[in-house]
Amino acid sequence: MNLCYAWVLALAGACGVVPWAHATEPLRLQEAVSRALGANPALAAEAAQLDAVRARAEREGLAPQYFVTGELENVGGTGSLSGVNSAESTLRIGRLIELGGKRAARQALGAAEIDQQQTAADATRIELTSRTAARFIEVAVDQQRLDFANERVRQAERTRREVAGWVSAARNPESDLRAAEIVVANAELDREHAEHELSSARTTLAATWGDTIPDFDTVAADLTDLPEVEPLDTLLARLPNTIDQQVFSREARLAEARRRIAEAARKPDLNFNVGVRRLEGPSDQGLVMSVSVPLGSRTRAGYSIAEADAQLAAIEARRKAEQFERHQLVFEKYQELGHARTEVESLRGRVVPKAEQALAFTRRGFEAGRFSFLSLSQAQTTLFELRERLVEAYARYHTLLVELDRLTATTQDTFP
Questions:
Q1: Is residue 209 part of a domain?
Q2: Could you tell me the CATH number of the domain that includes residue 267?
Q3: Per residue in 134-155, pLDDT tens?
Q4: Coiled coil located at which positions (predicted)?
């Protein structure tokens, strides 16, 4: 997929393939995708399969080969045919003479098979790029979750110390200290879970290029930057040229090539050979020739043509069904993307700032003895939950943008 897309710019900051430096530097999205495209076994398999298809196309496009036949008759019999004195030996050279343009039809089929495999390789590259981007985003989100979890632990420990002081001064009941300790324990559990999730996400991302142990510690991504998406009409206009539609086009071309071979098979081929026969008895030699023609070629070809026509009809029906389904998916993802942006703007513009103000106000009141520990704990919980919800909205927006790019990707959008 073209890495100059807006979501890549937002997450990574620049276009182009940048080689991976070393583990002490944060991993960037371009580097992750470049590594995946350079080392993922799926792409190696597609490349090897393309080589195999090309070799098969070259072989099938060759002209029929010559063949040599040797015959020995009237040897080792009885009476006058005993021994080799009456033997007849024949040496023939022959070849199948193709009629009806069969070789050209095979060559066209080979070219169609190569195009089909090349399109399959492009589709794999686009899918791999999207999957790598989605996994990269998940790592970035889990990093932010861990940051929040660490902050929550710090806040809980700070509050526990404050409550312990107030309990010692007999201003707060002992139950507040126990409640504060429970909050600390829960925050530490949440942090442990966040560490586990981040470790899993990093391992999953590294697996994209075949590493079992990540050689990076962090990723560099700005989740807060929400790039604008193209208008819905522009995205829908790309659907007839998407990689999936190109797959159907290549399948149709393949079926048409097979139909052309079937049509060429209506005209039977000639099996012609010529040779020399030697008669040992009179020690004479003579030329021999033969021609053979198969019968029933038109009937057999008719069935093959009918099969190809049915395959073409099936491919066209599946292509239309896929286009309708893709139209609905793009519309659905576009609407979800708009909702995610609205949620982000509302949370970071109004809701989270108000929660921060409420926490600051509650803390001042708690320190002054006007608010209880429960009020402070609820204000802290509310703020952290809203921050986590904001991160989830960021992640949803970027993930949906990647998905929209994948759904509307064309063969021109493959990674350079």
A1: yes
A2: 1.20.1600.10
A3: 999 999 999 999 999 999 999 9
A4: 139-204
